[in-house]
Amino acid sequence: MINDTTPFSILVINPNSSQTVTQGIERGIESLKNLYNANITCTQIENAPKAIETKEHIAEIEPLISQLISKSNADAFVIACFSDPGVSILRQSGVSNIYGIAECGMLIAAGQPGPFGIISILPASIPRHALQVSAIGLGSRLAGDVALNLGVLELDNQDLAKPRLEKIGKQLRDEMGAKSLILGCAGMAGYRNWLQDILGIPVIDPCRAAVSIAVGTMGTLQT
Question: 198-207: per-residue pLDDT in tens?
């Protein structure tokens, strides 16, 4: 049982097997470790695909996520993939304190003035995001969702990613009226500060959002 003096533990799960993505997530949430009374650690699923980009990938990793969580003693879990794989299934099976980064990113964006935009990796991601936005009742707040046309592993190439992030960020801000943006992939975490400085509007790293919501929620459950 957690209490107000014992730090609780949050396990951030990168459900692909890319060490580069995991390291990016770790860097993105590092500063949160000094803010919260929590033990925050990251891991990845070694026998998962290198990138989660299709419905088939999602179906493949959902049981792997469940297996990892069943063996963990963490108090809360963050699933660091913007498709929120396994989150609904695990909740329905009785797993408590599980947080999907897409859902949490959208909830944080809902607290900002005006509509929000999403920067996706691939066009195929956009219909999945639309369902997620609708499921949490934020359809009227979505300004737009535009894809970079880059795969997860290509995001590490700054020469490719930065020009597209800037172009699409400005499109969502100037043409679609977005007042804040959500990075629609855990692999974009390293670009948050840079893009926010360029655009002058809030840019939300959904991994940071999910960890923050997990901490806040667990804090309300302390005894």
Answer: 999 999 999 9
